[in-house]
Amino acid sequence: MALGEFELIDKYFTRPVRRAALGVGDDCALLVPAPGMQLAVSTDLLIEGRHFLSTVLPDRLGHKALAVNLSDLAACGARPLGFTLGLSLPQPDEAWLEGFARGLFALAERHGCELVGGDTTRGPLAISITVFGEVPAGQALLRSGARPGDDVYVSGTLGDARLALEMFRGAVSLPGEDFDRVRRAMELPEPRVALGQALRGIATAAVDVSDGFAGDLGHVLRRSGVGATLEAESLPRSAVLARQPPEWQRRCTLTGGDDYELVFTAPAARRDEVEAAAREAGVPVTRVGRIDVEPGLRVLGPEGRLLAADLHTFDHFKTP
Ligand code: ADP
Ligand code: MG
């Protein structure tokens, strides 16, 4: 007997809530932000074939669907509270649902982020999560705060997810162990939630890298009315990516996408505090450039040669 909509919700997506006043089961959920906090809200929509490959294991998909949303909260310096899940499924496949829920809740529990509601419908495989977080009023990290003279930082490493995608496309080939590592980066990104919160009051601007480093930094530059100069070589990359041809390294780090690292700016006088925040969060950060008065992004190659300016980001309506 096929699983009905309400049995499916009961069995896979109904969990007791601790922080919310009301979770799954009524017409609305009720969240309780602490006094003096602002609610931070973000939505991401993931479509099969567009944002994920049909070959991805369901538990990894469950992880990633929430991870990309938590990454947005991280970029704002917000603490996760809860989320809603919109799910469109071709059929109620229990093995798939079990894996998906396992990956989803494992990450949710690590971040104290409760599933409080959603909607379930039959249709092409698609997942839309809206996440809710809280941040002390006026302290959210925004894209608009970068100032000339600030340092530009990036957390973790860039480019592995893109390298994995190119491997799936057949454009590069990697030994099995290397492929597993970059595939994990693509399918199991770790949202930098602790780092985002630790950077409140230190970083002047922040964004998470979903569409590619250069493009996402570009959003910060435009919103802040500034520019930036950085050296391509300074961008942090994994040992696996560092073994690829230089051209691929540059492409993957600068415009790769799906990294879910934080790019942020901070005054040069606060380098020690940035380092302390990174240590506290247990995430390495690398200083990669500086903010200039002149608008645009300048990427320098060997011997300070201008490699590229204003690299483009992934755009669903412009990128083939
Ligand atoms: P309504 O008709 O009022 O929109 P539904 O009948 O669609 O409500 O859903 C019943 C309850 O189950 C609601 O509390 C809703 O938030 C919850 N729900 C539905 N789908 C999901 C899901 N995928 N994950 C979590 N909760 C869900
Ligand atoms: Mg409904």
TrEMBL record:
Pathway: Cofactor biosynthesis; thiamine diphosphate biosynthesis; thiamine diphosphate from thiamine phosphate: step 1/1. ATP binds at G118, D119, R143, S210. Residues 25-135 form the PurM-like N-terminal domain. Keywords: ATP-binding, Kinase, Magnesium, Metal-binding, Nucleotide-binding, Thiamine biosynthesis, Transferase. Mg(2+) 5 binds at D211. It comes from the Bacteria. SUPFAM superfamilies: PurM C-terminal domain-like, PurM N-terminal domain-like. Mg(2+) 4 binds at D27, S42, D72. It holds the Pfam family AIRS_C. Mg(2+) 2 binds at D44, D72. Residues 147-299 form the PurM-like C-terminal domain. One of its GO terms (molecular function) is thiamine-phosphate kinase activity. Its EC number is 2.7.4.16. Substrate binds at H51, D258, F314. It catalyses: thiamine phosphate + ATP = thiamine diphosphate + ADP. Belongs to the thiamine-monophosphate kinase family. Reaction mechanism of ThiL seems to utilize a direct, inline transfer of the gamma-phosphate of ATP to TMP rather than a phosphorylated enzyme intermediate. Catalyzes the ATP-dependent phosphorylation of thiamine-monophosphate (TMP) to form thiamine-pyrophosphate (TPP), the active form of vitamin B1. This is Thiamine-monophosphate kinase. The gene is thiL.
